Structure formats: structure tokens, C-alpha cells
Amino acid sequence: MKESKKKYIILIVLLVVFGAILAMAFAEFLQSDSEVPIIRNEITYIIVIALGVLLVALFAMLIAVAFTKKRVIKDSSEVKFSGTLKVGDVTPARKGKGVKDEEDGEERSRFCMLSELDANRGRFFKNDYNDGITLKILCDEFRAFACSKLRLYYSIDDIRKFIAGMSVSKIVILQGMSGTGKTSLAYAMGEFIGNPSTVIPVQPMWKERTDLVGYYNEFTKRFNETTLLQKMYEANYNKDIYVTILDEMNIARVEYYFAEFLSLLEIPNPDRRYLDVVTDEWDNDPIQFKGGQMKLPNNMWFIGTANNDDSTFAISDKVYDRAMIMNLDHKCEPFKAPKSKGIRVSAEKFFELTADAIKEYSITVRNAKRLEKLDEYMIKVFNITFGNRIMKQINTYIPVYVACGGEELEALDDILSKKVLRKLETQNPVYIRSAVDGFCDYLDELFGQDKMKLCKEYVQRIKKNV
């Protein structure tokens, strides 16, 4: 209002000044001899005409400003916004207030889509889940569904690794050659459980969490809500398993744009994982918001696909340590499978199945002792140890893999090759090349001849490449 008053005052002053000049000129004309024209030359003529034009223009501007109403832009799509605003860029004057809609005079939320989810939250309360399922049935039916419904072919071992990986971490990285079905596997999971996966194509310029969850737009007075933000908010109302695919996740630096998610997922208690969305709180913000924060849903998994080529960034140890890795290096041959309609399974049931598997199929004493000896060997020869996080992942992955129908040593071989031996790539290449053969002999001695095929293949590949 103060700026508007200043404009009015300036325009009125200008009108008075120019009006006075013209009035004085006209008065001089009336008092002068009629035979002597007031306009004695061309320059004076031009000045008088210019003053008249300016007077008319200023008067028109005054009318325009007086009758122009300040309108709120109704749709953010109607505004071409070239800048980048951070989450929570809100002035203190608007803190705690909504934006008035000119049509009905009511205050509307800055989160239009999330408020709509609040209004229709009743449709998410479903209870049509299959409670009689087991992890083995889940794997077998998933493989059959992908084959019969989607014409996607995966080995049963890969299906078991994928399901067991989901039990270890909310972040699963699918890596390997292009065309082996990485994105398709995560997509098929959403179709199988009756809750379609959300595909988020990662962009090369992504650097912060606003690229994932959105930002407040000062021009539209609304929050630019991304698809991921809407799905996370919806997941907090639902019991379904939510699968979010971060397609080509390492085309940008994962530890930059996904940093806050990595930290939150490390918190043991899921009820304490709150994501910062905005820095303030408005009266009509979405129901689930608390002080500008939203709970990170415990029933959402982030499945990232990664390629290793010149156009991508190397995934850091920080990400690898917190995620579960799955390698898809070859395509499975087509096969026939019985028809499957998919299975509705809730996240709660999945957690229950994995908890039961950990109790029933905990790692055997024999293999636990083998692990201790291998840890001692790794420390002595390579100065590498498992660590508490990796041991926790091993003690979860192996029982769930066994419950899915696999063998204990297969699971141990797989997780050691991906979580422990990967650290050898950072060691002195000359020393690693000289120690690989002795390490393979020790694996045969400790676990049996050719029992740890994946581990031996991995270190031999390192030896070849260094």
C-alpha cells in the first residue's frame, strides 16, 4: 500500500507541475498583444506540444493505476519463471497466512495438490491385502507375473536378491549393462503389488533436495509440488508398498540431491524421520505437516538405476554403504510361467515377513565363525573390515534370501562381493594384483572349493582391470 501511495503522489505532482506550466503559457498569451504570437519560433512550438502530450499521458496513467486491481495469478503454468527459488523463501509478512482467492474471497493453501489429497484421504484406507503370503510365494509369483503379464524375464536368483535387498535398505541400486531390465524390474514390482511405481527421471543439473521435493514460488504464491512430494504425502495415508524409481540416478551426484534422504533413512526409528519442506508454518498447510516438515514414509522404497559410463558420476562410498546393491549384468533367456494376477501385499506384512525370516533363518554358527575368520584375514592382508553397518546388513540379507528359497552360502557370497570386496578398488592396485590369487585360495579353504564364485570373479576382475 505504501508503494502504491507513492506512485499516486508522484503522478499528481507531475500533473500539477506540467499543468501550471501550460496555464502560465496560456495566461501570457491572453495578456500579450494579439499581433505578437506567443509561439515565436519552432523550438517553442515543440516544447508546448511536448508538454501537452506529457500532460495527457500522465493523466491516462493516473486513471490506469487508479482502476487497476492487484490480481493473484491463478495458475503457475501461466507464468514463465526463469529463476530458482529455495524451499521456504517466504517473507515474514505472509507467515501463518494463506493466499486469498479473488473469485470466492477464501484463503487457499500454498500446497494445492497436497490439500486435495487431504480432502480425499478416505480413498486410501484399504484393507484388501493377502495376509497368507510367504516370501517364497512372493518371489515365485512375482517372477511368474513379470513373465506372463509383462514379458519380462528374470532368473529366480535375481528376484530373490531384489526382495532380500528391499529388506535390508529403503535404497536399492540396480546397476549393470544397459538393456538388462533394471528399470523394468522396479516397474514390474509396482504392477505386481497393485500400486504402480513412480518413475523420477534424474536430471544432470540436480544438486539439492528442492530438485526432488519442489520449492516455493514467490510469483505464484504457491509451492511447486513435485510428483515425488505428492507420492510421499500419499504414502503416509496408505499401507501399500510404494516404489519410486530414480532413473539414471548417477547422471547427477547422488550424494548432493539425495543427501537429506540418506541421513534421514539412517535414523533407526521411522517415526522420527521428518523431511524439511518449508521453513515456516501457515494455518492452512497440509494436515500432515508439522512446523513445515513432513514425515518420510516408511512404506516407500527408492530404487535407483545406474550405468557406469562417461556420462555419469561415480557413486560415492557414502551412498553404497547405505544402499543395497544388485548387479544385472546379463539378460535372462525367455521361459514359460504360469499366469499370475499379482498379489496385494502391505508394507506392514512385508516387514512382518522379514522379521520372521530373521528369527527363523538366522545365520548358522558355522558360517558366523567363517565370517569372523574372513574379517580377520581382510584386516591383516588388506586393512579392510566389515564394520557394524555391513554386519547388520549381512544378518538381515542372508535370512531373508533363505526364506525366499535360496541357499545361505549363495546369499553370503553375493553380499560379500557387493558390500565388502568393492572396497578393494580403492587399495593400491599393484598390491591387490599380487594378493588376489592368495585370497581366492583362502576362500576355497574357508568355505569349500568353488563355493564363493561371485567373490572370486569380482577380485579376478579387479586384478584384470588394475
Layout of helices and strands:
Elements: H1 2-31, H2 42-67, E1 99-100, E2 107-108, H3 112-119, H4 135-150, H5 156-168, E3 171-175, H6 182-192, E4 198-201, H7 210-213, E5 214-217, E6 222-225, H8 227-235, E7 242-247, H9 254-257, H10 259-264, E8 274-276, E9 293-295, E10 300-306, H11 317-322, E11 324-327, H12 347-360, H13 365-382, H14 387-403, H15 408-419, H16 429-447, H17 453-465
Parallel strand pairs: 3-10, 3-11, 4-7, 7-10
Antiparallel strand pairs: 1-2, 5-6, 8-9
Describe this structure in words.
The chain is an alpha/beta fold and 466 residues long. The protein is built from 17 helices and 11 strands. The chain has a 5-stranded parallel beta sheet, sandwiched between helices. The chain has a two-stranded antiparallel sheet with strand order 1-2. Strand 1 and strand 2 (107-108) form a beta hairpin. The termini are far apart. Residues 69-95 have low confidence and may be disordered.
User: Main beta sheet: strand number and arrangement?
Assistant: 5 strands, parallel
Widest sheet: strand ordering: 4-7-10-3-11
Helix content: 40-55%
Oligomer: single chain
Structural class: alpha/beta
Order of helices and strands: HHEEHHHEHEHEEHEHHEEEHEHHHHHH
Overall average residue pLDDT = 84
Distance between the termini: 70 Å
Rg calculated over all Cα atoms:
34 Å
Indicate the overall shape.
elongated
Question: Which consecutive residue ranges, at least 5 long each, have pLDDT under 50?
Answer: 69-95
Number of helices: 17
